[in-house]
Design a protein that fits this description.
Strand content: under 5%
Oligomer: single chain
Distance between the termini: 37 Å
Radius of gyration: 14 Å
Structural class: mainly alpha
Length: 103
């Protein structure tokens, strides 16, 4: 069970929901995001409950979107929020935030 849906990640990425060209790649990004969430919670002796809380769903959605953009612009050379400070991935997805805004 994924903590978010492909369509939710597409919304963050501003990809038309009807465009299925990136679905497989986005699904992989969601799997990676969910694995990160699980590992962080496991370190604290916790796990995601059967009903996924909104903050977990949002974390998965935004981290998956960050991973998708990062894979497509690994050097951070693109315009906008594709390259963010480690550990601050949701913030980096907001307009105008890039590496230059962080030390």
């Amino acid at each position: 069970m994924s903590y978010c849906e492909v369509t939710e990640v597409k919304e963050v990425l501003q990809i038309d929901p009807a465009n299925e060209a990136f679905d497989t790649e986005i699904e992989g990004c969601i799997a990676s995001a969910d694995a990160l969430i699980d590992s962080l919670l496991k370190q604290k002796g916790s796990a995601v409950p059967q009903t996924v809380p909104q903050n977990i769903a949002d974390s998965s959605k935004y981290f998956a979107a960050w991973l998708f953009r990062r894979r497509r612009d690994p050097a951070g050379q693109g315009d906008g929020p594709s390259d963010t400070h480690p550990g601050m991935f949701p913030v980096g997805l907001q307009a105008g935030v890039s590496r230059q805004h962080f030390p």
